[in-house]
Design brief:
The protein is of the alpha+beta class and 167 residues long. The protein is 38% helix and 19% strand. It is globular.
């Protein structure tokens, strides 16, 4: 196959290393938050440092989407049970969600004003308003206790990846 397409060479690497390469760097820390796993990977000179790589099975994209769905249902919106509805919640999270720089202050602001609210049109045409749910689902990554999990948040895992490097 390589001969048919005149491919002169091929390079295989981990997604974390390739992510770092895409930013023009060969040294850094990559935080990869996926649907079913989160990894923090320290990379030095284009190679992952095994002792500075951590996997967080509980802090995953799917959990934050589930949490967002539960908070929306608690506010009185329709139940998001089907796969299609799950994709709608995931779209809301990806389009409107953000990480709060000061969670407590933003929670207070969300109660006092509508400045943090945003609207989203559901596939059936209904328009809903999303408030503090926009940043509460992302806060799970830093405060796993919201889901009843103990252990490190993403920020602590990133710190641990950095401090585990001898370089």
């Amino acid at each position: 196959m390589f001969e048919s397409f005149n491919v002169p060479a091929m390079y295989l690497s981990t997604t974390s290393t390739l992510s770092l390469y895409s930013s023009g760097r060969t040294v850094g820390v990559v935080v990869d938050i996926g649907h079913s796993a989160t990894h923090t990977v320290a990379i030095h000179e284009g190679r992952a440092v095994p002792r500075a790589t951590f996997r967080l099975d509980r802090l995953i994209g799917r959990e934050s989407t589930n949490y967002l769905a539960k908070t929306l249902v608690a506010r009185g919106f329709n139940d998001f049970e089907s796969a299609e509805q799950f994709l709608t919640v995931q779209d809301i999270k990806e389009k409107l969600g953000f990480v709060s720089l000061d969670y407590e202050l933003d929670m207070e602001n969300a109660i006092k004003s509508s400045s943090l609210e945003s609207t989203y049109q559901l596939p059936d045409g209904q328009v809903i308003t999303i408030g503090n749910e926009r940043f509460r689902c992302a806060e799970l990554l830093f405060q796993p206790s919201f889901l009843g999990h103990d252990g490190a948040g993403v920020h602590e895992a990133t710190y641990n990846s950095i401090t585990r490097c001898d370089v």
